[in-house]
Amino acid sequence: MELNPTILENASNLFKAVSEPSRLTIVYLLSFGELNVNTLAEKLDRHQSAVSHQLKILKAARIVKSRKEGKSRLYSLADEHIYEIVDQVFTHVQEKESL
Amino acid sequence: MELNPTILENASNLFKAVSEPSRLTIVYLLSFGELNVNTLAEKLDRHQSAVSHQLKILKAARIVKSRKEGKSRLYSLADEHIYEIVDQVFTHVQEKESL
DNA sequence: TATACATATGAACATAATTACATATATAAT
DNA sequence: ATTATATATGTAATTATGTTCATATGTATA
């Protein structure tokens, strides 16, 4: 595996995007299905504005996508592969925890 | 998959640890074998002190381990699984890049 | 023990990231 | 068109992070 500057940058951006607890929780919650900003804000106990900013970051990292539905906007994971990666890390830390 | 506070914290710490380009590069370099701080500092074009600080973070996240060898200390990946995770993301962003 | 070499640490500085607040934009329904 | 609802954005303040510099610690060998 070669590590050129673009791959390095994109990979660290992806890692950074899911390194923030709120954003990682968003990814987890969206793995069960699409949700709007307000529902996410309630579940995360954060302001709508904060979650909206976080979603923008996740969208820029191509981790989530969204679609309009009536007057709200539904967010979902952009790619199943993302959840595989996250789930792999969840499993990893869970194993390490039980040592 | 359940997301309790401990898993969430450990997982985001792991993601955060490899989200910094220098640290991600360290993981990449160590995937080929063990290296000491000075060699890493040269390859990364950073001061020895900066790399030492980064290694401390990687060690706290249980991503690298080290052993004494003469008067130097050799660092290596704490776990093969770590590189699998990183490599999976490298592959992912490489695929996304070529869209 | 004195010296040289390798690594680690603490403090200070600069930069970046996150949040809250206020407000703007967009859409649907009356 | 007006109102209500949902979401996005700009800005400012707080907090976190990474780097450098100086120095301390550790270790091997003369």
From TrEMBL, chains A, B:
Domain HTH arsR-type: 3-97
Gene3D superfamilies xref list: Winged helix-like DNA-binding domain superfamily/Winged helix DNA-binding domain (1.10.10.10)
Keywords (A to Z) from UniProt: DNA-binding, Transcription, Transcription regulation
Keyword match DNA-binding: yes
Classification via SMART domains: HTH_ARSR
Domain of life of the source: Bacteria
The UniProt record lists the keyword Ligase: no
SUPFAM superfamilies per record: Winged helix' DNA-binding domain (SSF46785)
A Pfam family the protein falls into: HTH_5
PANTHER family: ARSENICAL RESISTANCE OPERON REPRESSOR ARSR-RELATED (PTHR43132), HTH-TYPE TRANSCRIPTIONAL REPRESSOR CZRA (PTHR43132:SF6)
Protein name, per record: Metalloregulator ArsR/SmtB family transcription factor
Upper classification of the organism: Bacteria, Bacillati, Bacillota, Bacilli, Lactobacillales
